[in-house]
Amino acid sequence: MKRTLLAAALLAASMAAQADAGRPDPVGTENLDAVIVTATRTAITVDESLAAVSVINREDIDRLQPLTVTDLLTGLPGVSLGNLGGLGQQTSLFMRGTNATHVLLLVDGVRVGSVTAGLAAFEQIPVEQIDHVEVVRGPRSSLYGADAIGGVIQIFTRHGQPGGGLQPSFSLTTGSNNLLRGQAGLSGGDEHAWYNIGVGAQYTRGINSCRIGAAEAFTACYIDEPDRDGNRNKNLTASGGYRWDNGAELSGTWLRNLGEVEFDGSYQNRSRTLQQVTGGRFSINPTDAWKTTLNLGQNLDRYDSYENQDFRGYIGSRHDQAGWQNDITVAPNQLLTVGLDWQGERVDSDTGYLDTRRNNTAGYAQYQGNFGRQEIQLSARRDHNGQFGNHNTGGAAWGYRFDHGLRLSASYGTAFHAPTFNDVYYPYGSGNPDLKPEESRSVELGLNQRLTHWNWGINAYQTHIDQMIALDSNYFPLNISKARIRGVEGQLGIDLAGWQVQGYLTWLQPRNEDGGPNDGKLLMRRPQRTARLDVDRSFGAFGLGATLNARSHSYADAGNRQAVPGYTTTDLRASYHFTPDWQLEARLANAFDRDYETVWYYNQPGRSFFLTVRYSPAMR
């Protein structure tokens, strides 16, 4: 792993040293001109953000040829994932060493995730229906409330453009493990309105999700079931909007995904899932200096479990939400944002939860100001949770721009996470009603530079989490008194003689500091080092690319007795525009057929090949 990281760093540095100063800015996941809204809840460019951010646009998605959202996110700075056995299986995302429940997922502005488990089902988001992704690292509770300790990921689905005309799209993918995936869409717009409709489906026989043998049947999956665990899903999306001459705008979005997944288990080995996201937004400018926005949203999540064909039970959750945001220009280059948020969480299950409802109301304010070379951002929020009472969070960030595109930034932020319904209310002695909310405080220092032909950045941070929730050996949730996470993230983007190169490095030290028997141990499932290198080049109608992902070992237990080995994988890809509207894509994943796991005992696919034909006039 150390050799892999060193090689990636040396390759990036060598290309930077040889770069032609006349080359344009690199395109891809670090496009600094991209407009984002997640970092501040207002429209800014990546270059203006004082938070550490990454943006993946639709061109990047088509170029990288991912099968899943996790293919896009793996290896980004501060991001690691744990997958339970291949495509479609449950996936947990850890950001900057925090818990998987400490990452807030938004889809078109709507909070997404199970209110029972507290996890966002990244594996259920259809990648073909995504327009772009914004990843913001670091605490954001002062803007979004609970859950944003490690960061926020916002996924924006495809949409039409005003005046964009009629644009159909179509793709068909086939590949290893009998994969078959299809997508079709239609988008368009006129001077005032826009719309998009999309439909997709996917099927694969999958792999054997759990690698255990009979002698280990009670270690991980609790059964020796050496069969293929397939999955299938169907998805629908619809969005649209209208903009009046006075600037008022009304828009709505809807995403529905139905899935069926097989896995290895002694009591359950098949599930059917529903993920539905509905959102609406209305904004208007009462004056030139004031913009007001109303948001409504709902996330439905349902999980039905089976053993073969026998129904075992269901757990459903509903997350209703509403918000009112006001952006006020108080002076040139100074913006004040104030707003109110409301959330309602509901559980519907045949399991007798001790409580099934709770609400959260909040008020927040943010100030953004530019003063010559200096930038300041201040934010504060007060949440009232129906179960856990009041929580105050805040954030402060400062930036200074030197000559030659060099910028220094520093920030401090606090955040919190309320225990989930499973943590507190699950029956049969599995819930802990004495749990306290987790609270964090983070400091960060960043340095980045944008030059004509390349850009780079480095961020160092430290996060302290009090009352961090963890499971004991009997899977009973407990507060461990303290955890301390230190990390350094680096990234480098280069455009060299037509080659697009993007590299990422992360060093992480996530430690338990509760003073107990596991004091000083690393937190479970967090690798200390990760790296990713993307290299792409176009030759007229042809495109070639490769992605290298590497991570060091992690631990499967709180006592650090069971290590999950590190690994390095390489993906190769090629594309060919055989007409301006049609493209053929080929991808060889895990090209060297590495054996690896992201979660102890759960298999990952070996060498896999995928072929896609894509039609989209928008490619012109």
TrEMBL record:
Q: Which UniProt keywords apply?
A: Cell outer membrane, Ion transport, Membrane, Receptor, Signal, TonB box, Transmembrane, Transmembrane beta strand, Transport
Q: Indicate the principal place this protein occupies in or around the cell.
A: membrane
Locate the TonB-dependent receptor-like beta-barrel domain: which residues? 232-590
Q: Residue span of the signal peptide, if any?
A: 1-19
Q: Which InterPro entries match?
A: Beta-barrel_TonB, Beta-barrel_TonB_sf, Plug_dom, Plug_dom_sf, TonB-dep_rcpt-like
Localisation per UniProt entry: Cell outer membrane
Question: Which intervals hold domain TonB-dependent receptor plug?
Answer: 47-152
What is the topology of this protein in the membrane according to its UniProt annotation? Multi-pass membrane protein
Name the family the entry cites. Belongs to the TonB-dependent receptor family.
Protein name, UniProt field? TonB-dependent receptor domain-containing protein
* Source species of the chain: Rhodanobacter ginsenosidimutans
